[in-house]
Amino acid sequence: MGTQTKIPSWAAGLSGARAVVTGASRGLGAAIALALAEAGAHVLAVARHAEELEALAAHHTEIEPWVGDVTDADFVAELAGKDIDILVNNAGTNHPMLMEDVDTQTLDRMLNLNVRAAFLVAQAAVKSMLEHGRGGSIINVTSQMGHVGSPKRTVYCMTKHALEGLTKAMAVELAPRGIRVNSVAPTFIETPMTKPMLDDPAFMAFVTDMIPLGRLGQPEDVAAAIVYLASPAAKMVTGTSLLVDGGWTAR
């Protein structure tokens, strides 16, 4: 098992918290699960691939693998029955293509995972949090593309703008019941999902030129933002989007 990391004082309130991270087998999700575990939470790491989850769990004693599909109704029903303090709604996908080339299968696949499943997973977590009466924190992983537009990303931008809207509406509705809802909106992060795109030198040049800091983000950059929003340090933060974008959207 991995070495236990000292919990930062501002995140100490996560000790013993119960967290669920979807899309946790690799990339952003794996980094988020590990960061929450290192901050003291017990993490249910959700993904479809058992081997990758087992490899992740080997890094920390507080990570518990949960093989499941967020688009499956049985998984959502089971989630509602868990005891949840923190949900990180991270599962999602992207298929960049020109708008005129988008087929209905791609459209439906992205809407189903990025919007419909995200809503249903959040709804299940809310039911759990309300039942247990301790409040909670829900963090939707969106994208800088939920704030701007970009070529070959009409469907992706649409889904992420939808998730940003859901975040604000949930935050307003659930604040009186002690549940905070925020989003984290990353720029291009070096992950297995982005690697095929970033391997194109022309696209890589476009991305780095658009980021004022001049570099790609790392999964740990996003994980740090998640831990902050889940922690007591963010107790007055709800309904906002924390942009981890190196300045992309500041232009």
From TrEMBL:
<dbReference type="InterPro" id="IPR036291">
    <property type="entry name" value="NAD(P)-bd_dom_sf"/>
</dbReference>
<dbReference type="GO" id="GO:0005997">
    <property type="term" value="P:xylulose metabolic process"/>
</dbReference>
<dbReference type="InterPro" id="IPR051737">
    <property type="entry name" value="L-xylulose/Carbonyl_redctase"/>
</dbReference>
<dbReference type="GO" id="GO:0050038">
    <property type="term" value="F:L-xylulose reductase (NADPH) activity"/>
</dbReference>
<keyword id="KW-0521">NADP</keyword>
<dbReference type="GO" id="GO:0047838">
    <property type="term" value="F:D-xylose 1-dehydrogenase (NAD+) activity"/>
</dbReference>
<dbReference type="GO" id="GO:0004090">
    <property type="term" value="F:carbonyl reductase (NADPH) activity"/>
</dbReference>
<dbReference type="InterPro" id="IPR002347">
    <property type="entry name" value="SDR_fam"/>
</dbReference>
<dbReference type="Pfam" id="PF13561">
    <property type="entry name" value="adh_short_C2"/>
</dbReference>
<dbReference type="InterPro" id="IPR020904">
    <property type="entry name" value="Sc_DH/Rdtase_CS"/>
</dbReference>
<dbReference type="GO" id="GO:0006006">
    <property type="term" value="P:glucose metabolic process"/>
</dbReference>
<comment type="subunit">
    <text>Homotetramer.</text>
</comment>
<keyword id="KW-0560">Oxidoreductase</keyword>
<protein>
    <recommendedName>
        <fullName>D-xylose 1-dehydrogenase</fullName>
        <ecNumber>1.1.1.175</ecNumber>
    </recommendedName>
</protein>
<comment type="similarity">
    <text>Belongs to the short-chain dehydrogenases/reductases (SDR) family.</text>
</comment>
